[in-house]
Amino acid sequence: MRSITFPTAVMPRCSEKQHSTGLPTSRRSSSASPSLFDQDPEKGGLPGHLENGNSLTQKEPPAEEPNWPTEWRAWTTLAACFFLMFNSWGIVNAYGTFASYYKDVLLPGTNALYFNLFGATDCFMVLILSGVVGRLLDAGYYKQLIGTGAFFVTLGFMLLSIANGNGEWNDGNIALIEVTHGIVAGLGMACFFVSSSQIAATWFQRRKSLAIGIVASGASISGLVYPIMLRFLTTSVGFNNAVRCVAGLIGATALFSYFFARPNPKHMYRKPESWQDHRVWVDFEAFQYKPFCWFTASIAFLFLGFYPVFFNLEEWAASRGFGYKDGILPTAQPGEHRPLTAGLATYYMLAIMNAMSTFGRIGAAYLSDHYGAVLVHTVVTGVCSLLVLILWTLTPNFDISMVFIAFFGVFSGSVIGLPPASMAYILGKEPHRQAKLGQWTGMMYTAAGIPSLIGPIVAGALISKYNTYLTVQLWSGACLALSTVCMAVTYYHKRKEHPAAASFSEAEQADSSDEQEDGLRIGRTASTGNVSSRTVSSGASTVQSPRRQAPGEDEEQRKAQSDDDDEIKQVKTDEENSKA
């Protein structure tokens, strides 16, 4: 006789208050902190409370989600979140066109370091405040965040339009551009950035990565719209009026987001008992979880080298003669105006790169729902590093430069759009873990804040010192390669958690097949704690695997256990009588 015991789903006899972590307890990866994955809302005898003095609020019990939401509110929220990304990271993507105008008109002869500094400040503000914004989102303050963001982004660009005199030759002021474009507008972008992906994600449980990808495509479309809009309006109405038009578009789309961006009513909120507790803002247990630590390191390396490509693309193309500005060859000597007969306006190059990233953002998001966000993220980041280190550095002519722009645009869209989806993958699907998505995503981006400021500044300093864009190409490629390595390690640690579950599944299928072949009789499921077991008996004896008793097992569970034991004994007796 043989007996087999293996885990099964918790059966109806379980108390309604039982909550499963969703990971096989006996084979949980040793790399994960046990307390991290045992943070049940019911732990500690007070339903609705989490660690660190936080309370968890869920308006309705979680239910099976359809593939696509059926409520109209989900789709208006998706559109509203699209515009939040449009007016946050999209403006960062469009910065290269602003930088080109600053360099050529407002601040001629200024060190290239400053032009990288303005864009880097935007990145820094968006990322360094992401931890605060993410925690406020987890507490349900989305309305206040969107309103604050709309005010500051619009204000920043309105102030930029009056900070540089008439907006003509040598009228620029370095300090005022840094304050208005970098700090004030950057503060508003920070309120939009994390909000955009996390609010949309609450509606699309089955297609979360794809929804986040659609939202992220807002940055690509913005990177297409704003450069072309700014260039054409600057030519017709002047730089200052062009910036005011940009501010008007930002204000109008932000107003739409304010009224229509709403989280799913079923989404859990975590409101702290006291905001003064430092544990409210930083979840220290996240740093005990290896996948989170490695992925955060990968994002830090990513931002060291990613945006120098966008910030310096126009100037690189002009210096190599692959693109032109206002129909004049940039490499001509002062007073020597040689019209360029081949190539493309440099701002179109940046717009094309941003437009191509739309396909990468949505395509990678779709693949992430099928193959896992971290795996897809690792692959596309590796491809980006190769494109920069090989194709960009060896570009010989205009045609190859456009090949680089197109391919890097596609894969860079995947790279920059996937971090929130990858963090959702790292957290898992359980509602009480997903309730931390805003905070963990914010912590990840906050850790990347300093690198995002340092990276473009280092790139600008390298250009100024060595007078070649090869330094930027090598710097960006190396940083992306390091990011790829860290992502691969993240995938390795996360993967270690899943084979255990897979091995259980395979064992269950094999044993189920044996049951059918041998006519085994199966005792009813007895659920104890977070692990349930069932006993399969055949022959003259039965061996039942040890059960882990839950500390608060109620009388109903004890009765169910007793009934199952009686039935097992009866099965054994029947088999012995049958043999006799």
TrEMBL record:
Skewed-composition ranges (Polar residues): 525-547
Q: Where is this region: Disordered?
A: 1-68, 502-580
Q: How does it sit in the membrane?
A: Multi-pass membrane protein
GO cellular component terms?
A: membrane
Name the UniProt key words of this record, in alphabetical order: Membrane, Transmembrane, Transmembrane helix
Per the record, where are the segments of Basic and acidic residues compositional bias?
556-580
TM segment ranges: 74-92, 112-133, 145-163, 183-203, 210-229, 241-261, 292-310, 347-367, 374-394, 400-428, 440-463, 469-492
Localization, per the record, is: Membrane
Entry-linked Gene3D superfamilies = MFS general substrate transporter like domains (1.20.1250.20)
List compositional bias (Acidic residues) regions by residue number.
508-517
The record's section on InterPro entries has:
MFS (IPR011701), MFS_trans_sf (IPR036259), Proton-linked_MCT (IPR050327)
Q: Which spans does this entry mark as compositional bias, Low complexity?
A: 26-35
What molecular function terms (GO) are annotated for this protein? Answer: transmembrane transporter activity
Name the predominant localization. Answer: membrane
Family of this protein = Belongs to the major facilitator superfamily. Monocarboxylate porter (TC 2.A.1.13) family.
Which PANTHER family does the UniProt record give? Answer: MFS-TYPE TRANSPORTER DBAD-RELATED, MONOCARBOXYLATE TRANSPORTER
Q: What is this protein called?
A: Major facilitator superfamily
Species this chain originates from: Botryosphaeria dothidea
